[in-house]
């Protein structure tokens, strides 16, 4: 067994999610700044938030990576230069552990302006062979993110043909593109919003019909069943049952996709992968014995159906979902414990409605869940309420048992909202 544990790398679209990722077991977090990182709709971090996030991550002994992975056009370059200068002036050269970059032009500017920050080459750069990895190594990159289209056998061959200190990062879990990653113009074509500048509108999830060229305006349905078909809609990647194979391929960092995901999703995925990795390094027998548990936990958050992507060879028709584009959602996110008063009230900002008398569940950091009953809800003036009508309202809660509940824990309820 490879004795070095792989890094568990988690996305965060906000400071709240960054803290959740660290509290639930991430080894490293990747975020986007407000400019030049893909995912324009993700919350994204201001320079000040990056400083606060970096301090939180480093206080826990973990790492922070920042994406700057658009494909830059000429007109973007002055802005990238200014952005790197802002990062330098804010003292972030000492606080960001690595940039994730795909464009050689941006790579050049990062080396010139903030040479103290390591560079990882983004999956957007389509890194598919060991000569590419060696090229980036010679250029000064310390890690390359594998293209999603590689098999584990190909990654093993790359590992065998690159320097031992060159790291390989690979996707472990999350949404897949139906196109070749980073080479998709569907969104630009339909909406003018460029996927390669972080503004994808996800047309691959839309429902399509066929039009015969001599009959414009006549939409011929493509039907998988009575709901039609979603011919471009990929299943999500999930490799939680293949951790030994991922380690065997020589991967150093297990990456979870999703900088636009909620705190609840990030908590569930981080905690479950943390347990699975740690279980495997305790004993393979323990890991094998708990696979149903991992599946059940992972299924407790929003997800599409799952696939192993390209890792065991080429994908086929089973990698897609033809009959719908909806997420299955088994739990509702109610809030995060922000504080616990001396009198034992839990302080939260409500995310979704719940009532006095409801059964709610706390996601404990050790992997267990604690189910309790809501005994009382108070507003910020300590007026008693039956429920909290306003989203984001500050609440004080009394629950039937708050033993071992800590700051940062996610609260959820089992309301099915398929
Ligand atoms: S439209 Fe779909 S396949 Fe294309 S970049 Fe967006 S998510 Fe990926």
Uncertain residue segments: none
How is the largest sheet built, in terms of strand order? 1-2-3-4-5-6-7-11
Small-molecule binders = iron/sulfur cluster
CATH architecture classification name of the largest domain? Alpha-Beta Barrel
Please report the first level of CATH classification, the CATH class of the largest domain.
Answer: Alpha Beta
According to CATH, the homologous superfamily of the largest domain is: Aldolase class I
Largest sheet, strands/sense/barrel: 8 strands, parallel, barrel
In total, the number of domains comes to 2
Characterize the structure shown.
This protein has 418 residues and is of the alpha/beta class. It has 2 domains: 7-179 and 234-319, TIM Barrel (Alpha-Beta Barrel), CATH 3.20.20; 332-413, Translation factors (Elongation Factor Tu (Ef-tu), domain 3), CATH 2.40.30. Helices cover 26% and strands 21% of the residues. The chain has an 8-stranded parallel beta barrel, surrounded by 5 helices. Strands 13, 14, 15, 16, 17, 18, 19 and 20 form an 8-stranded antiparallel beta sheet that branches. A two-stranded antiparallel ribbon has the order 8-9. Helix 1 links the parallel strand 1 and strand 2. Helix 1 runs parallel beside helix 2 and helix 1 packs parallel to helix 9 (263-282). The protein is globular and about 60 Å long. The model has no long low-confidence stretch (mean pLDDT 88).
């Amino acid at each position: 067994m490879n004795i070095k544990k792989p890094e568990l790398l988690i996305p965060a679209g906000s400071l709240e999610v960054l803290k959740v990722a660290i509290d639930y077991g991430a080894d490293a977090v990747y975020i986007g700044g407000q400019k030049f990182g893909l995912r324009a709709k993700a919350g994204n971090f201001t320079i000040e938030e990056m400083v606060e996030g970096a301090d939180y991550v480093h206080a826990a002994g973990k790492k922070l990576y920042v994406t700057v992975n658009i494909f830059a056009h000429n007109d973007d370059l002055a802005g990238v230069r200014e952005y790197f200068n802002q990062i330098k002036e804010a003292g972030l050269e000492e606080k960001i552990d690595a940039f994730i970059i795909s464009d050689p032009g941006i790579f050049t500017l990062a080396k010139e302006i903030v040479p103290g920050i390591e560079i990882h080459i983004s999956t957007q750069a389509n890194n598919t062979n060991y000569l590419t990895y060696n090229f980036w190594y010679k250029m000064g990159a310390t890690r390359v993110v594998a293209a999603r289209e590689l098999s584990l056998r190909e990654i093993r061959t790359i590992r065998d043909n690159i320097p031992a200190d060159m790291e390989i990062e690979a996707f472990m879990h999350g949404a897949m593109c139906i196109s070749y990653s980073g080479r998709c113009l569907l969104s630009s074509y339909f909406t003018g919003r460029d996927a390669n500048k972080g503004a994808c509108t996800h047309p691959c999830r839309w429902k399509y019909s066929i039009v015969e060229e001599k009959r414009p305006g006549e939409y011929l349905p493509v039907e998988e069943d009575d709901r039609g078909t979603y011919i471009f809609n990929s299943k999500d990647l999930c490799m939680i049952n293949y951790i030994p194979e991922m380690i065997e391929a020589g991967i150093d960092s297990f990456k979870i996709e999703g900088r636009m995901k909620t705190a609840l999703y990030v908590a569930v995925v981080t905690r479950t992968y943390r347990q699975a990795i740690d279980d495997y390094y305790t004993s393979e027998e323990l890991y094998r014995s708990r696979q149903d548990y991992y599946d059940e936990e992972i299924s407790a958050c929003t997800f599409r159906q799952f696939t192993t992507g390209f890792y065991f060879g080429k994908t086929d028709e089973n990698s897609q979902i033809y009959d719908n584009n909806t997420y299955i959602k088994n739990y509702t996110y109610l809030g995060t414990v922000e504080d616990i008063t001396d009198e034992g009230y839990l302080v939260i900002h409500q995310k979704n409605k719940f009532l006095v008398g409801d059964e709610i569940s706390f996601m404990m950091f050790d992997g267990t869940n604690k189910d309790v009953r809501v005994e009382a809800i108070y507003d910020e003036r300590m007026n008693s309420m039956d429920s909290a009508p306003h989203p984001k309202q500050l609440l004080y809660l009394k629950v039937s048992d708050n033993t071992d509940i800590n700051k940062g824990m996610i609260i959820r309820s089992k309301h099915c909202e398929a």
